[in-house]
């Protein structure tokens, strides 16, 4: 390759397979069934293509020949099934109305599309007026795009794409909509591009416009490259084919179409292997290796070992911490004595510190108290309230030594014990009938009687 | 891990695009409506009124501690709506919007982020309302409010990673969206949004503790800790914090890996 002919797009052994459903089976069935009933449709079969800068390639073919598939592959919207596709440079695609958002105005679409192409807001501001002027939309630029005619959409799409300064421009049947004056203008712009040594792909059914713009033409025929060469030769052959086809009777046309489509359905990787082995030197020992390499489509996305180890580690940590969170030990305790943590039955027990209490609204009572002691804070209110209740029940207490304590909000057994100079065990001893693992505010428990200075005195 | 970095790089590179798309998403969603985007504020507000009547007035015992009911419920609803709308709408963002954006080379991973940005103003407005009401109730700005930044980052990380994962799944399995919708309605009551299940003594203590492991619970309670100056994040049981960030880590690694691995194949499944 010489320097002035830089490779822009290189496709080798490119195929694209679509899996079509046999009948209207729902996605649900497809999801659960292992061997779902689909058949393969080879939209592209063994396409080889080298495109250099400054070239304009016309892509022609009947409907369903795979033109759009090829263009989508080049713009990296879809990925090839097999083969290698190399695209050097930014690609910008124009097709009728595509990429235009209906719900917003033309001006907003310009900004959106430009942003998505990686331009900054400042650059867009600078270019905005130029783009609007080129699009010839005038006052309609601030209308919603859904109200645009197809010609206006196509003009807008072309204007935006042209000002993206792409390396590769793809025009997918977009220019057939615009009127001849706009077509003239856009063809001028395209020649400008070619002088800047940019690559242009034109997909069109219009032989005249292809003839005007392109130097090479790719003729796709039911997924295969029928011919690739200079425009005069290919277009001549294409015209001949069209004439021949049009002269067939309707029945013959149908038979021909069916035959071609069958080829597309019956194609398989085996055919591709044969085709490849035709093109390379099979006498060489490394031939089969090369073929396998071409056909081998691995996806390059794998989790690294480090990531897998990290994932595993974090999962184990989460499980461990979840167990700790649901046990009655704190993290420090459990991590300090992991063996005891699992063997001594601490799992799935409430922590002594875990107590979340409900809001106490004994409606009118507390409200009236609030009024009388508005300066007091909430906790003292509770003490005064509970002291009333404790005094009423103190007579029923059998233990002469013990005193009562009404559990306050946020109290734990440990707190109570510390406050009253006793131990948790001692409290448990004098409360044989109460389950102290669940204490709630307002509950009255007995305390060992040595403490005389509880806050309960009233 | 590599994919997580790729994902974040794509988000940062396309930040201006994300903000711009999120702006016109509102326009698209409320096209032809006179009130327009105000509706996205009215919906959480009506739900707030319903739950305030239920749990603030009729059954007031279900709100723990001494915290006033109105801001307590309001902040819960604000976070929940942010989460639910982002996850449910974001999960379909790739599957539904693919055709709009497919005509150019453009990282699909930013579509869930667009949904997040779209819902952010509602969260901000409702969070601001909560703070004003809390101040009326006597909770004035204090150092604890710094924690709001920490919990907001946690919430956004949770939402982004989870939505990215869901959006990738929905491309291949559309029914997952319906599952998400119903699950989110159900999960609302287990996430401490409108009432605090962990205060119900009917439920065994171990289960009540386990509920706090729910990452949504962590965030919702965190916001309340900050606003009502209850506690610092390091005063919490550390295991909850570690589990929360551990889950976020796993979600990010798995989601970004799956997304990047399968995004070449999206076009075969989206039509």
UniProtKB/TrEMBL annotation, chain B:
<keyword id="KW-1133">Transmembrane helix</keyword>
<feature type="transmembrane region" description="Helical">
    <location>
        <begin position="38"/>
        <end position="59"/>
    </location>
</feature>
<dbReference type="GO" id="GO:0005886">
    <property type="term" value="C:plasma membrane"/>
</dbReference>
<keyword id="KW-0812">Transmembrane</keyword>
<feature type="transmembrane region" description="Helical">
    <location>
        <begin position="71"/>
        <end position="96"/>
    </location>
</feature>
<feature type="transmembrane region" description="Helical">
    <location>
        <begin position="238"/>
        <end position="258"/>
    </location>
</feature>
<dbReference type="InterPro" id="IPR013525">
    <property type="entry name" value="ABC2_TM"/>
</dbReference>
<keyword id="KW-1003">Cell membrane</keyword>
<dbReference type="GO" id="GO:0140359">
    <property type="term" value="F:ABC-type transporter activity"/>
</dbReference>
<keyword id="KW-0472">Membrane</keyword>
<dbReference type="Pfam" id="PF01061">
    <property type="entry name" value="ABC2_membrane"/>
</dbReference>
<dbReference type="GO" id="GO:0015920">
    <property type="term" value="P:lipopolysaccharide transport"/>
</dbReference>
<feature type="transmembrane region" description="Helical">
    <location>
        <begin position="148"/>
        <end position="174"/>
    </location>
</feature>
<feature type="transmembrane region" description="Helical">
    <location>
        <begin position="186"/>
        <end position="207"/>
    </location>
</feature>
<keyword id="KW-0813">Transport</keyword>
<feature type="transmembrane region" description="Helical">
    <location>
        <begin position="117"/>
        <end position="136"/>
    </location>
</feature>
<protein>
    <submittedName>
        <fullName>ABC transporter permease</fullName>
    </submittedName>
</protein>
<comment type="similarity">
    <text>Belongs to the ABC-2 integral membrane protein family.</text>
</comment>
<feature type="domain" description="ABC-2 type transporter transmembrane">
    <location>
        <begin position="26"/>
        <end position="228"/>
    </location>
</feature>
